[in-house]
């Protein structure tokens, strides 16, 4: 083995029993004579004769591999060939030599491990995965075999550590790690695009920024850059960037922007800070307890007291012979008493409903800052009739032409609500 002190003894196959002194023993390698009788012909000090006819080689290296011939000269020359194979542990020439590669998203990268050794080593590539960032039992993912790892159409997820493992069974496997950096412009996601607060309370805006190279992040209010103050604090922890507004004042309401810049581009996401109520969240079960009545329950978040509530509901088609939804019923619900808390809970009973029918409802709420966004559509079902649905059948309940008609009516209805708001808030 290369780099080790080893003893390799080559023993002559023919031992002179009679007239030993009349025989001449030669050791040669190819045409080169190493020894003749007791004379050392080679000048390599690693070679020597042991017991007069055994050839010993110390500090064996790859260059010593090959055929060695023991030749005894008498009237007939007799040869014995000894083949020496030197086992060499693997070695690696990596490219890039720095073990670091960088490429833009959408581009390509090539990592290389040129291996040598005897026997010829195998090369295996893996993507190294941190144990806390994966549910896999393995610590890495096998990608390819061979001296090169070619990665194309790079995405952000390709960033990370890669390793080539070189092994030929001689000594321990050799592992070489690389770091691949995929460069891309900033990408921003916001925790909430609409933040509800009130005067004297606080507002927290959070945006998550991913970028390589790392991005510079700044905050804007209504297109004007923000600076830190006694009430405004900006902080960053990893990829998360937070804008905290304490003791909110009327001038703090408005549109905010989280802006991220690096050498490859810019990204922007908007967040609205508003005192308007949050969207209504329905809390009642989807199946009524009676055939002709239903108690609709919902919750609305609002720091100031609620001033007004609007409920719109209508009957839906529930078979193919009745394809058009009914007309909207517009109900004004008295505002609940101030709850002394953020969440206001409301329950309203709808009467005169059709048995065994499916209905849908939407809700809006108003406080001193204005109307909130229309709630998501909520569906419920009354008992009785020929068509009794279960909760799991309510959504989605349409297909084909019926669903198309339903969508058209919903769009028209929401457009009507928007116009109604403009008229009543103007």
Structure in words:
It is a single chain. By secondary structure, the chain is mainly β. It has 4 domains: 6-84, Immunoglobulins (Immunoglobulin-like, Sandwich); 89-184, Immunoglobulins (Immunoglobulin-like, Sandwich), CATH 2.60.40.10; 191-274, Sandwich (Immunoglobulin-like); 281-385, Sandwich (Immunoglobulin-like), CATH 2.60.40. Helices cover 6% and strands 49% of the residues. The chain contains 1 helix and 32 strands. Strands 10, 12, 13, 15, 16, 18, 21 and 22 form an 8-stranded mixed sheet that branches. The protein has a 5-stranded antiparallel sheet with strand order 4-3-2-7-8, with no helix packed on it. Strands 17-24-23-19-20 form a 5-stranded mixed sheet, with no helix packed on it. It is elongated and about 130 Å long. Residues 1-20, 132-138, 387-420 and 422-426 have low confidence and may be disordered.
Question: Can you summarize this structure?
Answer:
With 426 residues, the chain is mainly beta. The chain has one helix spanning 400-425, and strands spanning 7-10, 24-29, 32-36, 39-40, 47-50, 54-58, 66-73, 78-84, 88-95, 100-104, 109-118, 122-128, 140-145, 148-151, 160-167, 174-190, 194-196, 203-212, 216-221, 224-225, 232-237, 240-245, 254-262, 265-274, 281-282, 293-301, 308-315, 329-333, 343-351, 358-367, 370-371, 378-381.
Return residue spans where pLDDT drops below 50 for at least 5 consecutive residues: 1-20, 132-138, 387-420, 422-426
Query: What distance lies between the first and last C-alpha atoms, to the nearest angstrom?
Result: 92 Å
Return the domain count.
Answer: 4
- CATH class of the largest domain, please? Mainly Beta
DSSP strand content: over 45%
Number of strands: 32
GO molecular function: axon guidance receptor activity
InterPro entries: Cell_Adh-Cytoskel_Orgn, FN3_dom, FN3_sf, Ig-like_dom, Ig-like_dom_sf, Ig-like_fold, Ig_I-set, Ig_sub
Protein name: Lachesin
Domain Ig-like: 90-181, 186-274
């Amino acid at each position: 083995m290369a780099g080790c002190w080893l003893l390799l003894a080559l023993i002559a196959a023919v031992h002179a029993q009679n007239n030993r002194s009349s025989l001449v023993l030669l050791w040669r390698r190819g045409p080169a004579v190493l020894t003749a009788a007791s004379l050392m012909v080679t000048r390599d000090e690693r070679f020597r004769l042991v017991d007069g006819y055994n050839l010993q080689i110390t500090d064996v290296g790859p260059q010593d591999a090959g055929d060695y011939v023991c030749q005894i000269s008498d009237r007939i020359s007799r040869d014995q060939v000894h083949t020496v194979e030197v086992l060499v542990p693997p070695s690696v020439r990596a490219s890039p030599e720095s073990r670091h590669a960088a490429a833009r998203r959408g581009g390509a990268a090539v990592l290389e491990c040129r291996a040598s050794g005897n026997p010829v080593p195998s090369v295996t590539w893996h993507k190294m995965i941190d144990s806390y960032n994966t549910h896999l039992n393995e610590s890495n993912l096998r990608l390819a075999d061979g001296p090169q790892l070619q990665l194309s159409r790079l995405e952000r997820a390709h960033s990370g550590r890669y390793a080539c493992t070189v092994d030929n069974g001689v000594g321990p496997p050799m592992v070489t790690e690389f770091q691949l950096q995929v460069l891309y412009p900033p990408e921003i996601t916001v925790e909430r695009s609409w933040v509800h607060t009130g005067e004297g309370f606080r507002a927290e805006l959070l945006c998550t920024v991913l970028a390589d190279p790392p991005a510079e992040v700044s905050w804007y209010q209504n297109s004007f850059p923000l600076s830190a103050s006694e009430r405004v604090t900006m902080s960053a922890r990893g990829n998360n960037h937070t804008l905290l507004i304490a003791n909110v004042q009327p001038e703090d309401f408005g549109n905010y922007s989280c802006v991220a810049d690096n050498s490859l581009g810019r990204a922007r996401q908007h967040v609205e800070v508003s005192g308007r109520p949050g969207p209504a969240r329905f809390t009642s079960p989807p199946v009524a307890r009676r055939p002709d009545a239903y108690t609709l329950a919902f919750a609305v978040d609002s720091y100031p007291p609620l001033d007004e509530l609007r409920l719109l509901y209508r009957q839906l088609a529930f078979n193919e012979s009745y394809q058009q939804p009914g007309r909207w019923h517009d109900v004004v619900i008295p505002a609940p008493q101030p709850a002394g808390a953020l969440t206001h809970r409301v329950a309203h009973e709808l009467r005169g409903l059709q048995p065994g029918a499916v209905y849908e409802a939407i809700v809006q709420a108003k406080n001193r800052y204005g109307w909130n966004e229309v709630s998501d559509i909520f569906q419920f079902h009354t008992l009785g009739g020929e068509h009794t649905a279960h909760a799991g059948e309510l959504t989605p309940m349409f297909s084909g032409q019926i669903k198309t008609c339903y969508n058209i009516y919903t769009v028209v209805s929401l457009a009507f609500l928007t116009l109604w708001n403009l008229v009543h808030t103007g």
